[in-house]
Amino acid sequence: MAEAAVKLEESWKRAMDGEFASRYMQDLRAFLVEEKSQGKTIFPKGSEYFRAMDLTPLDEVRVVILGQDPYHGAGQAHGLCFSVRPGVRIPPSLVNIYKELEADLGIPPARHGFLESWARQGVLLLNSVLTVEEGRAAAHQGRGWERFTDAVIRAVNEQPHPVVFMLWGSYAQKKAAFVDTKRHLVLKSVHPSPLSAHSGFFGSRHFSKANAFLEAHGRQPIDWRLPEV
Question: Which InterPro entries does the record match to this protein (predicted)?
Answer without folding.
Answer: UDG_fam1, Ura-DNA_Glyclase_AS, Uracil-DNA_glycosylase-like, Uracil-DNA_glycosylase-like_sf
